[in-house]
Design goal:
binds 2-oxoglutaric acid, NAD, Rossmann fold, alpha/beta, phosphoglycerate dehydrogenase activity, 22 strands, 3 domains, ASB_dom_sf, 7-stranded parallel β-sheet, 60s Ribosomal Protein L30, Chain: A, 34% helix, EC 1.1.1.95, binds 1,4-dihydronicotinamide adenine dinucleotide, serine biosynthesis
Length: 527
Amino acid sequence: MFNILIADPLSEDGIQPLRAADNMNIVVDTGLKPEELMEKIGKFDALLVRSQTKVTREIIEQASNLKIIARAGVGVDNIDLEAATENGIIVVNAPNGNTNSAAEHTMAMIMSLSRNIPQAYLSLKEKKWDRKKYVGVEVKNKTLGIVGLGRIGAEVAYRAKGQRMNVIAYDPFLTKEKADNMGIGYGTLDEVLEAADFITIHTPLLKETKHMIDSDAFGKMKDGVQIVNCARGGIIDEDALYHAIVSGKVAGAAMDVFEEEPFTDHRLLELPEVIATPHLGASTFEAQETVAIDVSHDVAGFLNGEPVKNPVNLPSLPKEILNTIEPYFNLSEKLGEFLIGRTEDVAEEINISYAGDLYDVEVAPLSRNAVKGFLKRHLGDHVNDVNALYLAERKGISIHENKTASTKGFTNLISVEVVMKSGKRSVSGTLLNGLGARIVKVDGYNVDVTPKGHIVVINHKDIPGVIGKMGSLLARHEINIATMQVDRSDIGGNAIMMLTVDRHLDEKELDTLKELEEIYEVTAIDL
Ligand SMILES: NC(=O)C1=CN([C@@H]2O[C@H](COP(=O)(O)OP(=O)(O)OC[C@H]3O[C@@H](n4cnc5c(N)ncnc54)[C@H](O)[C@@H]3O)[C@@H](O)[C@H]2O)C=CC1
Ligand SMILES: O=C(O)CCC(=O)C(=O)O
């Protein structure tokens, strides 16, 4: 008999697949305080949550019997994935079940903003008949800027077109072809921010997207812009939003999600320009039933030995495969991470090749790992070895794997190449006996860098003095250089410099390096 804890309210119809299984003892106990959950979790085999329950490392470490955590919804930022993985607990989610509801809620927010419906309703409830104060704007022919064109962003785009809005979107995986097929425009983040009358955010909350909409971003928007966040709190900097509204830059904001939830006591809520709902994007009977059905099937199936459909992490691999390739896992993922840092255009193809010792080994898990490293910068921690190839395909990136017996001077070599419309980028790495992983080639140049920490890659003209200028500029920013590598195509031709430095370089610091006329390109990559 398996003990199942449902810790947040889930649709009763949706959990029928669990109730139907005859070896499940289901306990519904919602609204537990963290310390109560910590005390109880030890006897459960499965934990089902929505977004309220925070499944922290402390809780996971008390969960000695826990085998699976199921998130009835998309975002898994309330679950410590690293702790779950470390403790061999699989995490599953329900990525598709609430897409329509979240898109519909977003449209409701856009319409409410444009016509002041919540404000007018409150005024009428106070027995005021104020028809002048609440004159709105039509959305027809207005431009909707969508940031993040995944499942929900795309559904919002289709609905907005139905309202005869002009739609323009930014997503690192959006190509012109895809935008053309959807009948929408596409641009960079700045272009979207500059063009839009309404802006709606649909990205996950990641290191990259935290405070993506800050005071700089508001500065780029049209005066009188209206903004909606039904994705995750923290993507919009709430203090910057407050000031943008008070200054008159932003005419209205609709928020379903907040940096701290529950969100009941905040100066934003006192502004009449702000309308808000308490994280209701997925709160429909249909969505709740579908997500509960999806996770119930995965939990019941998994506990009975079947593979899961929507894994978010993957705790283990068969031992015999793991033993041979485990040493290359970190390297393959780091190569993917390095490459996305140098991918300035939409990726169309990723080619992964293996040489030397890796010729007759099962390398598919390493390829998945490299693709995972490549994708996770934009798709977040729900990319794992299981779903990496599927997600790449969904983003229109084809993956090719090949092997060669030629050692190219290395006992083992993994090379990852990305093909974009604007060209190719590549990186190769090897595992040196006793010395660990090394990046040994970048775009064909020979280097020798440990794939770890803060790396700066500089493409420059091979002329005297560049290294010195670079060193002085970094010193001016008080950035210490730990290692330095240089290589060149030919004397006086193109050259590359790879530095490892002691801290992250911000955009402004990078810009000062780019100003040197001998420099073609500078990228900073944190591994
Ligand atoms: N308010 C609510 O109740 C609900 C909120 N959500 C949230 O909505 C968000 C979107 O969910 P889905 O569409 O299902 O996810 P998805 O994974 O299908 O789409 C996210 C998209 O964001 C893009 N992206 C990542 N970084 C970006 C960046 N820096 N700039 C622009 N685009 C970027 C990705 O390429 C991807 O296409 C998530 O944060 C999810 O947790 C989802 C359901 C309900
Ligand atoms: O469970 C909920 O109501 C929240 C849904 C959500 O935010 C998500 O699926 O990411």
